[in-house]
Amino acid sequence: MTDTADVTRPETGQLDVRNPATGEVIATVAATRPEEVDAAVAAAVRAQRGWAALAPGERARLLRRFAAEVDGRIEELAALEVREAGHTVGNARWEAGNVRDLLEYAAGGVERLSGRQIPVAGGLDLTFHEPIGVVGVIVPWNFPMPIAAWGAAPALAAGNAVLLKPAETTPLTALRLAELALAAGLPEGLFQVLPGTGPVTGARLVEHPDVRKIVFTGSGAVGRRIMGQCARQVKRLTLELGGKSPNIVFADADLARAADPLAFVDNAGQDCCARTRILVQREVYDRFAELLARAVESVVVGDPADPATTMGPLISAAQLRRVQGYVTDDLPVVARGGAPQGPGFWYPPTVLAPADPAAPVAVEEVFGPVAVLLPFTDEADALRLADATPYGLSGSVWTRDLSRAVRMARGVAAGNLSVNSHSSVRYWTPFGGFKQSGLGRELGPDALAAFTETKNVFIATEE
Ligand code: NAI
Ligand code: MG
């Protein structure tokens, strides 16, 4: 867990938001106190009743207007994300556009949230997808806008109210989205953003009996704790807890494409899908290491507001210390890129070759631009190494042999695999983890269903 000492001043209940590229405080935001969370929940309960009673087409229309508000402010939202999260401006524009797309996609599901008619004797049997009620969405700092919308858009579309707690370090874009929702005409209280710390504001959402589902993305430690707390109320829960994803490169692959460092340096490696375990077939290990080293050295690290930049800073001083802690002097370095000196939370892209494939840096989520390179012999060996972590979120397989690609993609115990590609997240395909990477699925055609309870109703027709 990050120590929040450098982002909060608990004595005043204020969150200091810093520009990670400079370390400067750019905004101060009041943290939501437990009694304010309770008031927000009460308002959400009221708003949700009216929202669920609206005609489906009307809910869809309001969500499309919300999407249009976001679309009109892509540049503004992106600039805010560059400043509060250090995201490169190209990524930040994509992220704001992703919010728009998620809202549009969810809006398209409102009138399609159909139940079933099931044959029974003596009557009619129908199922309904009822909204759950008030949903708490607890968001991390690595993708503040997309992850907020992954939870909020389908939850709202399915007829729920949403209380969203952004991460301590990145509340600004979420607060702006809440304003845009109101400007679009969403009812007061339906979508509220409650900035604050995890242990106070977040924990109150988890404990509150009128919050009927929690969607959490963040660390395994906090996710496990929240799961235990939800158990007391049998509260619905979706967890997305990160990964240590393999990039499996066979000798017959297009090695140059497989060696794209963006697979682990995009967003400065603060990506739950980052391919940070690079597994390479032994006969091409040296050639691949050379290609990777050249590519890593040419990653442009610097001012995230400059469109020519590939990688910006880490989010905070705490995250920088965490990443530094994994890269110990005994680990052989395969490649290292550059990083600016001076203020800000900078770390260079780094590839290590630990002698022990079970070293902490090789099996734990570092959440920085750090990958390990490990050799394998054959398919079975690659699968064994790919699955040798408690995680199972994503992974890539590189080979020109189609049958092997299918065997490997089916074989790896992870939720999101890509073949001859490093991409894994699209808002219209399902996303989530095996093993300790999470619980449940987000996005994709079933996204709305995860925010409903199935109700079965039997209607007798006999006189
Ligand atoms: P974290 O799990 O502490 O924070 C994630 C969110 O949970 C934040 O909004 C935080 O305020 C909230 N939270 C924290 N404690 C809580 C509690 N007791 N009750 C309710 N909400 C709570 O993650 P942190 O400390 O920022 O990052 C540490 C590591 O976690 C990272 O280095 C990375 O490995 C992993 N992580 C994974 C993410 C993913 O995408 N799966 C996202 C962020 C972090
Ligand atoms: Mg933490």
Would you write up a description of this structure?
The N terminus is likely disordered. Helix 1 crosses helix 7 and helix 2 crosses helix 6. The protein has 2 domains: 260 residues, 3-Layer(aba) Sandwich (Aldehyde Dehydrogenase, Chain A, domain 1), CATH 3.40.605; 180 residues, Aldehyde Dehydrogenase, Chain A, domain 2, CATH 3.40.309.10. Strands 13-14-15-12-11-16-17 form a 7-stranded mixed sheet, sandwiched between helices. It has a 6-stranded mixed sheet with strand order 8-7-6-9-10-18, sandwiched between helices. The protein is built from 15 helices and 19 strands. It starts with 7 loop residues before the first strand and ends with a strand. With 463 residues, the protein is α/β, with parallel strands linked by helices. 1,4-dihydronicotinamide adenine dinucleotide binds next to helix 7 and helix 8. The site of magnesium ion (MG) has 5 residues, from loops.
Quick structural overview:
The chain has about 475 residues and is α/β, with parallel strands linked by helices.
Write out the strand line-up for the largest beta sheet, numbering strands in chain order: 13-14-15-12-11-16-17
Strand count: 19
Total domain modules: 2
Q: What is the name of the CATH architecture of the largest domain?
A: 3-Layer(aba) Sandwich
Estimate what percentage of residues fall within beta strands: 15-25%
Specify the CATH class of the largest domain.
Alpha Beta
Which fold name corresponds to the CATH topology of the largest domain?
Answer: Aldehyde Dehydrogenase, Chain A, domain 1
Query: Average pLDDT, to the nearest integer?
Result: 96
Structural class: alpha/beta
Q: What is the first-to-last residue Cα distance?
A: 63 Å
Net shape: globular
As residue ranges, the low-confidence spans are 1-5
Task: List the bound ligands.
Answer: 1,4-dihydronicotinamide adenine dinucleotide, magnesium ion
Query: By CATH's scheme, which homologous superfamily of the largest domain applies?
Result: Aldehyde Dehydrogenase, Chain A, domain 1
The level of helicity is 25-40%
Number of helices: 15
**Largest sheet, if any?**
7 strands, mixed
| Rg on CA atoms, Å | 23 Å
